[in-house]
């Protein structure tokens, strides 16, 4: 998924920059929280290069938390335990 993202950016310069971030700092993808932290840090690297403010990665789960599977149907629809 991350590799695909380096090729689908509509802006070629942005795609190259993101690809360099991925090369220099391989993503951690073992768990959802680890991936969200990596994405936050990658996002902040882009923001830094654009002179934009950094997002506090301590709050990444509050802003972009994982999908909660409360019922069996939701877990199946979103690839949770029953849908794997």
Automatic annotation (TrEMBL):
Its EC number is 1.8.3.2. It is an enzyme of class 1 (oxidoreductase). Its cofactor is FAD. The keyword Cytoplasm does not apply. It comes from the Eukaryota. It catalyses: 2 R'C(R)SH + O2 = R'C(R)S-S(R)CR' + H2O2. Residues 1-64 form the ERV/ALR sulfhydryl oxidase domain. Keywords: Disulfide bond, FAD, Flavoprotein, Oxidoreductase. It holds the Pfam family Evr1_Alr. SUPFAM superfamilies: FAD-dependent thiol oxidase. Coiled coil: none annotated. InterPro entries: ALR/ERV, ERV/ALR_sulphydryl_oxid_sf, ERV/ALR_sulphydryl_oxidase. This is Sulfhydryl oxidase. It comes from Coccomyxa viridis. The lineage of its organism: Eukaryota, Viridiplantae, Chlorophyta, core chlorophytes, Trebouxiophyceae. The gene is g4907.
């Amino acid at each position: 998924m991350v590799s695909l993202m380096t090729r689908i950016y509509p802006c070629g310069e942005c795609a190259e920059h993101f690809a360099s971030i991925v090369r220099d700092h391989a993503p951690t993808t073992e768990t959802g929280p680890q991936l969200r932290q990596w994405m936050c840090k990658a996002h902040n690297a882009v923001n830094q290069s654009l002179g934009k403010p950094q997002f506090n990665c301590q709050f990444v789960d509050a802003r972009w938390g994982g999908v909660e599977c409360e019922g069996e149907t939701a877990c199946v629809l979103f690839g949770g335990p029953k849908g794997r």
